[in-house]
Amino acid sequence: MACSGPCEAGFYCEEGSMSSKAAPCAEGSFGASEGLSNASQCTTCPVGHSCGVGVGASSPCAAGTVAPNASMGACLLCLPGTYQPLPGGESCSRCGAGNYSANILSCEPCQVGEYCVAGASIGERCPLAHSTTRARGAAGLEDCVCLASYFYTADDGGSCQPCPAGTNCTEMGVTITTLPLLPDFWRLPNSTLLERCYSTSNCTGGSSAYQLCGDGYEGPYCGVCASEFNDTKYHRTVGGCEPCEGSMTQTVVTFVVAVVILLALLAAFLKTSKGKQLARKVATKLKMANDKATDKARDMHGAEVVEGAGSARPSSGDRLWLAKTWQFELPDVNLPSIIETLRIKFPHLEWPSLRVGQTLYDLQLPQLNWFDFQVSAPLK
């Protein structure tokens, strides 16, 4: 009997075959051309493809399936936590940490409030009450933090506790170590016992228990002047802690020098005509006051006058009389000129600002109670 035609693709026809589809190529192989005469002429199915029985060509695996080996008759689905987005895949990809595979085609970032380890098919919820994650894509339990208005403490196995009064827990992720304090509050490290600072303290607040004090302050309640801060020493003043400027010796020396200069200026003034006139007036006033006090003491109180003493001590009524009727006559000294001289000589010290032409008269000093002065330092 004569042959009727070649064997079809996907099949092979041995000698004496009666059909064009006498024998199909086995699963995992394909017949790429017509006229194959034995099974050895069938082609092996490549990786990433599948080949059924009697096919003339291999078929690439669909997305989400793979053929990791050659000669496979069917593609395999990707396992949970893995994916293959492209056709003809040889292997499934594993979702990295922070992602999960909700299907076999792709990975997605882990949802807020959950964390996903590598290869996860679903996220794990943060275990603590009042906890969450900062954003999508959390990779582990360590990415779970406390919600705003709560702080994490390791006590009792770990929990999120409400932030106490005096704190500023407006951000999530606060711990007992980073508990942010408002100004005027102080605490020990890892303590939730908050204390109000003193009015003379300088509590600036903040999230570090080791940096709650302003510049120049330290210690409990930030009430101690820092022995040294940024290479600067501090000392206590009425208003708080101030930087030290020079040593005490320098301050004392400066004061003594200033006093000496003032005395020298006073001596120079007394040598002028006005100074001499003032000195005579003062001497006259002193003699008149002393004589008047002595006479008044004899006439009104019979006070005994000690010979040679040159003075008598009036009663309290006489003291009031003296205080009301007698006061020093102040010299007309130009204070701004003296201050300016001192400012030039000692530029590092602070001097008061006076208006031009201001004199001692303008200061309106209180009246001098001469008798009180004479009692403490009687005339000789």
What does this structure look like?
- With 380 residues, the protein is α+β, with helices and mostly antiparallel strands.
- Among the domains are: 1-77; 269-376, no CATH class.
- Helices cover 21% and strands 15% of the residues.
- The protein has 5 helices and 24 strands.
- It has a two-stranded antiparallel ribbon. A two-stranded antiparallel sheet has the order 3-4. The chain has a two-stranded antiparallel ribbon with strand order 5-6.
- It is rod-shaped.
- It starts with 10 loop residues before the first strand and ends with a helix.
Summarize the structure.
The protein has about 375 residues and is of the alpha+beta class. Helix content is about 20%, strand content about 15%. Among the domains are: about 1-75; about 270-375, no CATH class.
